[in-house]
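discrete fold record:
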Amino acid sequence: MGATLLGACSNPEKTGRFLIDPPVSGVQVPNRLGTAELKDVSLPDYASDQEVAFQTPDGAVRSTPDNLWADNPARAFTTTLARAISDVSGATVISEPWPLAQPPARVLEVRVERALAQADNSYRLSGRYFVSDDGLSGGGANHARSFDIRVPMAAQGAAGTALAASQAIAILAQQIATLSGPGATIATTRPAASDPFDLSLF
């Protein structure tokens, strides 16, 4: 009897694993990033958990061990977003650590404040993103912008959450690629240090 119950609880067919896989939109935007390193995306605790979270009408965020993300959520979000930005713009966006000998021109950081299938039958992805220019050429433009994306849930359950999350990431990729959204562009200037012993630069 005990073995039967254990086998039922550990039945892999009862556990669904879901991928984050943005659809190919066919949209192309100008390359405004060049090369950029995407830092590991910061997610809320409930969104970084292996179980697929959802909100119930009472406002609680719940999950079940029967529905899991197929990959570590933060890793999947980061690598998927980097690929989506590259695909939509032609930029070279790679998740950290940067693997190429030539350093990236920019560093991209995304801080997600909400990533949740809400009780109103929509998926909401909100937060802020930051693009910093290295300024080695004498100056740069740094961007601090916010995003608040809502995608209607086409299906219920974890499958609907995964689909809506993938669509939201695709929208976020277009927003980052075009440096759009509420926020500010901050210009910085820094003289190029052609002579490391020139004390006038300090």
